[in-house]
Amino acid sequence: MRELKKGYQQEFEEIFKKYSDKNQALLPCLHLAQEKWGYLTEEIISFLAQKLGLPKVEVYSVATFYSMFTLEKQGKFVIRVCVSLPCYLKGSREILEAIKKELNIEEYQTTPDKKFTIEPVSCLGLCDIAPAIMINKKLYGNLTPQKVREIIQKYKEGR
Ligand code: FES
Description:
The chain is an alpha+beta fold. It has helices at 2-6, 9-18, 22-37, 42-52, 56-65, 85-89, 92-103, 145-157, and strands at residues 77-82, 116-121, 133-135, 138-140.
């Protein structure tokens, strides 16, 4: 728990204070942890379960229910590919395949150099520019396999 103590203990304490209902505090705490560490470690799950007085299994089930939380360390760039219907109809399957081929990994995997993770997600709210993806916080739309290959190339080269 050393890292939590010197890191973001204060921020968690503020959430605990704000919500008298421990169940309501859980989601904001998980968001904070995901944002700070990039994934939810066993240590964080135990910490929150203990602090909120919730069974660990309950914290796990919430953490695994929502796609925005991950239990494994992700790559530097997380490529979220929308696979909901409007994007699907505009070719998201081909976009996903092009990304997988370009990075030589499957869905939910991370490249060995820890640079990229591919994550299929539901609607990103960009249906008007479907098919769409998001790389970390940057949005891309009206994609074709060729366009997406060029985008990934830029990230590979650090441009
Ligand atoms: S369906 Fe893909 S962004 Fe909405």
